[in-house]
Write a structure and sequence with these properties.
With 396 residues, the protein is an alpha/beta fold. Helix content is 35%, strand content 30%. The protein has two domains: 225 residues, FAD/NAD(P)-binding domain; 94 residues, D-Amino Acid Oxidase, Chain A, domain 2 (2-Layer Sandwich), CATH 3.30.9.
Length: 396
């Protein structure tokens, strides 16, 4: 490292690691600064839709991901109150329609694949147990002071990218940027070993259960050895953090009047964690000179389209493209990146919010929703999401 211009990336989550690979492919050195002393991805499962898989494949990671991910048989949507089936989408339809499969994977497994790719590169440096302490801007670049347990380090860089999540510290360096906002919804999650899962559970598919003011999603991880369960409820809880210990009795009570299959799932004897769902409005500024935001730091969204991580992965691809297009003018490249991403992200952000409202409907509105799902069929439902799944980096 040292012969090429450097981009410093704050955060070694999925977005930050993917960004480092994309930045390096664009002809820059990348330095990732991560506050944790080891890489511990928060959360359990992640759904990898074709638009995200297409980016990761372009980085040469498809085989490694396929080796640890799972392709479910189908995505099934059911009524939480009656258990009735509303819609089933064969997962094979994704690869046939979009050229890339739909997969589910443990977040830690995806992070392991990305981190291994990062560590194979001589043009990427990963610094753990460190934080960006100060940034001094000059016309020709940045002086960035990194604080580590064994002493401070000063780097010169062409730019800094904040991939440091919804509670981003980098965001404070961008004038007028939007902060995190609570949604009044909370995600409860657990991972159930398949031996402890309800016998009635179809563990080869993604299950989505809809009900008034709540919904529940489950899908296989670890090649079917476990089931990731996420319950979204409307709840007044706004503490920061991603892994608050949660009393499973609340989940059991919250879903007590749902169908027997859901009640059995939420009653499994496994520990639960919860976090408040916060969002960041993507309409605010993402870039200020040589500083840019990426992923949740720029546009944290509700998880109802399973596109949060996918948008960060897409961000990384477009960031690399922009830097490759303007390698001698990093501020212009970062502005190009933001201009290429904001319209797309804003559209997905709003669609995810609308989807959550549909999921949580009750009464006559829920009956109308269920009728539409039963009569629409998988092709029509997929067709409504073509604009999400067909995306390619070159379109930006």
């Amino acid at each position: 490292m040292g012969e090429r211009p450097t981009i410093v990336i704050a955060g070694a989550g999925i977005g930050g690691l993917t960004a480092a690979l994309s930045v390096a492919d664009a002809g820059f050195d990348a330095v990732i600064v991560e506050r944790s002393v080891e890489l511990l991805e928060i959360g359990a499962g992640i759904q990898l839709s074709p638009n995200a898989g297409r980016v990761l494949a372009a980085l040469g990671l498809d085989d490694a991901i396929a080796a640890t991910a799972t392709e479910p048989v189908a995505i099934t949507v059911r009524s939480g109150s009656t258990g009735a089936s509303l819609l089933s989408i064969p997962v094979a339809a994704f690869a046939a329609r979009y050229g890339f499969p739909y997969r589910v994977i443990h977040r830690a497994d995806l992070q392991t694949v990305l981190a291994a790719a990062v560590r194979r590169r001589t043009d990427i440096r990963l610094i753990l147990g460190a934080r960006i302490d100060d940034v001094l801007a000059r016309d020709d670049g940045l002086f960035i002071r990194i604080r580590r347990a064994d002493g401070n380090e000063v780097l010169t860089a062409g730019g800094i990218v904040g991939a440091d999540g919804v509670w981003s510290e980098t965001r404070a360096r961008i004038a007028g940027s939007h902060g995190a906002m609570p949604t009044g919804r909370t995600a409860w999650r657990t991972v159930i070993p398949i031996d402890s899962a309800p016998a009635s559970l179809a563990n080869d598919r993604v299950g989505l259960w809809l009900g008034p003011r709540a919904h529940l999603v489950h899908y296989p991880v670890a090649h079917g050895a476990a089931v990731n369960v996420v319950a979204i409820v409307e709840e007044a809880f706004d503490k920061p953090g991603w892994a608050a210990r949660a009393d499973h009795r609340f989940v059991a009570e919250r879903f007590a009047d749902w169908c027997p299959e859901v009640r059995a799932l939420v009653s499994a004897p496994t520990p639960w964690q919860k976090f408040a769902i916060n969002v960041v409005d993507p309409s605010g500024p993402w870039v200020d000179g040589r500083t840019a935001l990426l992923g949740d730091a720029a546009h944290a969204m509700v998880p109802f389209l399973a596109q949060g991580a996918a948008m960060a992965i897409e961000d990384a691809a477009v960031l690399g493209q922009a830097l490759a297009a303007r390698p001698d003018d990093v501020p212009a490249a970062l502005a190009l990146y933001a201009a290429g991403r904001k319209p797309r992200v804003a559209q997905v952000w709003k669609a995810a919010r609308r989807t959550g409202d549909h999921y949580h409907q009750g009464g006559l509105m829920a009956s109308a929703r269920d009728f539409i799902l039963r009569t629409a069929g998988p092709n029509l439902v997929l067709g409504r999401n073509d604009w999400i799944y067909r995306w390619e980096a070159g379109q930006a």
